[in-house]
Amino acid sequence: MPLHLTAGQRLDGDVLERRFTLDGIPGILWTPASASPSAAAPLILLGHPPLGLDRMYPRLAARARQAVAGGFAAATIELPGSGDRPRWPAVEQARAGLRRAVQAGEPVTDEIVDALVLPLVGKAVPEWRSALDALLELPGIGGPAGYSGGVISIGVRLAVVEPRIVAAALFAGSFVPRAMFEEARRVTVPLHVLLQWDDENNDRQAALDLFDAFGSAEKSLHAHMGGHTGVPPSAGDAVARFFARHLR
After folding, report:
1. Are 221 and 235 in contact (CB under 8 A)?
2. Helix (H, G, I), strand (E, B) or coil at 63
3. Is position 172 within any domain?
4. Which of 99, 100, 150, 164 could form an S-S bond across to 171 if both were Cys, CB 3.0 to 4.6 Å?
5. What is the pTM for the complete model shown?
6. pLDDT tens per residue across span 223-240
C-alpha cells in the first residue's frame, strides 16, 4: 500500500512534521531534520487512546519532540472508528455500555471490556503493522522499532506478533480483557510500564496483575502518584532513556 506524505512543517528547528495517509488511514510522522539514508533514525510508534488525532495532537506532538530530541523518528496513526474515520457501530455501542455502567456506579463487566477492547485490538494491530512496513521504507528511517503508549492491549498484541518491535513503553490506564493476560505471558521484549497510582479510569490491581503476567526478562514498573492526566515530566525523561538503551 502506498504511503502519501505531505510536504510538512518544521517544529522547534530540527523536527520535521509530516501528515500522511496509508490506505485511507491518517497518520503523522515526525523525524529529525538531519535524518538521511546514511544516518537513519530508529522509529518509535506512538500509541494513544481512541479519542481522535486532532484531540490528542498536543500530547502526541510533545512526546514526538522528545523522541526526535533523542535521535529517533516517531509516528502515529488514527485508530479505527476515531477522528474522521468511519463510525464503528459495535464499538460505539460498547462505549455507550461503559458510560452507562460508570454513570450508574455499577461494575464494568468482562463482557463490556471484551466488546470495547478486543475488536479494536484485532483491527488496529494489522494497521499498525502495515504502517510500520511503509514507514521503514522511507529514506532516513530505520529499524529497530519501539512502541510507546496505549491502548495497552494494542501494545501487548504488537509486542507479541511484531518481531521488528524490540522494546515497548506501555501506559497503564485502559481496561484490559482477561484474554490479554495470556498474551502478556508471551511478551519477551524489554518493557517500561507507566502507572498513575490514583488513575480514576484504571483498575490499579488489574494493572499490577498484568505487569506480573508479562513474560519479559527485563521489565520495570514506574508508578507515580496522581490521576490519569497527572503524569510528571520526569516520566517522559525515563521513557527516553529506556529507548536510548534499547533502540541504539
Report:
1. no
2. helix
3. yes
4. 150
5. 0.95
6. 988 877 778 888 889 999
